[in-house]
Write a structure and sequence with these properties.
Length: 154
Amino acid sequence: NTRFDCLCNPKGVEILSMTMDVSKRRKIKAALSVFPAAAQMGLTLTMALGGRPSVGSKLPDEAIHLLAYLVLVILIYIAVRNVAVSMKRNSVIKSSAFMASIFSFIDEALQHLTPSRSAQLSDLVADNLGVMLGTVLLFSVQHFLKEKSNDQYH
């Protein structure tokens, strides 16, 4: 009967269709938010296996590693936050840092296994410094936003 009432009631049908649309939008947003992190990881692996492209960068190799992994941890955070909506933000940040750090070890391991490449401890350190800086940045932004929202209610 409840289903029949809902279908007969124009407002009920509207509410039902709006709920479905929101759910569908959330799923699409979650799926799309994974692509930037996946693209960054793919680019990192491509560079690890095939060498660094000459982009005319004046930055040292370690700075590029640091920046790449700082961006990666933020992209992973965005993806996880949109996919695991029920997870607490602190847990999402910690999980994102863990995933990015594990990926840095995989990256260096693949370079070690690639004949024309070599794994370097300095790259691994720079990667994980980038992960730590990105994590600190995420926690700082979260703290700032929490403080800002608390100020609005006081």
